[in-house]
Automatic annotation (TrEMBL):
Keyword check for Zinc: yes
Name the record gives this protein: 4-deoxy-L-threo-5-hexosulose-uronate ketol-isomerase
Cofactor section: Zn(2+)
Annotated keywords: Isomerase, Metal-binding, Zinc
Amino acid sequence: METRYATNPEAIRHHSTEQLREEFLVEELFVPGEVLLTYTHNDRMIFGGVTPTTSTLEIILTKELGVDYFLERRELGVINIGGPGSISIDGQEEEMKKQDGYYIGKETKQVLFKSDDASNPAKFYCVSVPAHKVYPNVKISIDAITPMETGEPKTLNERKIYQYVHPNVCESCQLQMGYTILAEGSSWNTMPCHTHERRMETYLYFDMDPDTRVFHFMGKPDETKHLVVANEQAVISPSWSIHTGVATADYTFIWAMCGENITYTDMDMVAMDQLK
């Protein structure tokens, strides 16, 4: 597990492209047969990919977190973006096709990840945050979610937002997690942009062709920066930063948030004339 420390917005004022990428971009999350995680000190979120092939995989973090087992004091959200697989939660196994998700509560002792076909492995995107209360484990299928439709074609931001770990779907301590799919011909996500001082966020961009790139904009509204993001790469977005992007072709992304509240609409909108 790689550690990324929290950053003051003033510290990035003179960052080079390489420095920005080292602090905020995670370039590799899904490697066959491996668990790759990043621990950001922004609200102590752990996120990354579990990609089982011929063997079952498990996230084992004890010494790193000062606990006896991974979810002793944490909750976990999982969404499969790869081939069909399964997840076993304290001995109860569930099938997990692409776009299936799971909320797994605090004090769950064992979570095992498995692929049905090693040549087409499942890719489990996992996000874990500190938790103070036990909530029930809930399987979440995209087929059972009524998406929130927003944006419009003339502003190139028409999209459907599928809320997985969200009060409308299941209870959680502070984790929120969802899946956004842009309509054909739309390329902007979350524009007009916003910040939310009360929550940080991570973005995983995927379902992109090899040559497609997302230009992810970050930084303070009056001093923006950007990261060029390829398929299956993720961005850490601190609470003080805007987070919006535009791409050269179709893409999908998973957003995950944690912090002071779980009110999805609690955000500070940025007027277009404030962006610089």
